[in-house]
User: What shape does this take?
Amino acid sequence: MAINILIRFTPAKPKAGEEVRVQIVVQHPMEPGTRRDGTGKLIPADHINEVNVLFDNQLIAQVKPGPGTSANPLFAFKMRAAKAGQLKVTCKDLNGQTGEKTADLALA
Amino acid sequence: MDRRTFIKASAGAVAGTLLANQLTSALAQGGLEGEDLANLEKGLRQVLGKGFRDLTVSQQVKLVAPTIAESGANVPVEIEASLPADQVKAIHCFCDKNANPLLFTVILNGVLPYYATRVRVAETAPVRAVVETKDGRFLLASQSVRVTVGGCG
Assistant: This one.
C-alpha cells in the first residue's frame, strides 16, 4: 500500500516573491521500535526515514526523520514563491514502502 | 601587595571568571530540566562528529516548543534561523533523553531556513535545535519540554 501524502500551501495562491508555507502531512503510524504490544512483545520499528521535496524536479529539501517523529507526521517549510511550478514529495519507510504526491503552486 | 600587583592580579581574576562563565553558558544554558548530556553527546558525535562543547549557543536560532506537553507522542517543534537562506545547510534536532537522541535532520537547498514538525519526547528533557551553516558552524538553541505522558513507550 502506497503511503498517503497531503500537501497544502498557505497562502494558497501567493503573489510573486511572497513567502509561502508548505505543509506536508504523511499518513503513517511511525512505529519507533520501542513500544510493546498487548503481550509484551516489541513492535518492530517502521518509520519514514526519507522525505524528498522537489520543486520542478529540483531537490529543495530532504528530511531524514528518526524514530522520534510523531505518527502522521507534519513537515512544514517556507519558500519564496518566485514562479509557478510543481511541487513533488516522495517518501520512503523502513519496510521499503514508498509514497509520492504532486501539487501545483499557482501564483495569484 | 602594592597597587600595581593588585591591579594585575584582579584583572587576571576577572578575565578568568569571564572565561569560566562563557564555558558554562555554552555547556548548560541555565540548567535545563532533565538534561542528559552523556546521552546527547552520543547522538551528537554519531551525526555531526562533534560533541556538545563544539556547538555555539546562538540567538540567531529560534526554537519554538511548548514548555509543557500533555502527550510526549506529539510535540510541535518549530525552528527558524535568522540567517540568509543560502547560508544554512541543514537543521538537526536532538532530545536529551530519547533512546535515539536524534529526532530528525533536514537538508535545505533553496527553501528558507525554517522547519516545523511534530516529534516524540520520551520524558521531560530539553529539545535542542542545531543549525549547520555552510561555513561549518553549528548554532544551538535549546528548550526544556516537560512531558506528563511519555511518547516512546
In short: Residues 23-27 of chain B have pLDDT under 50 and may be disordered.
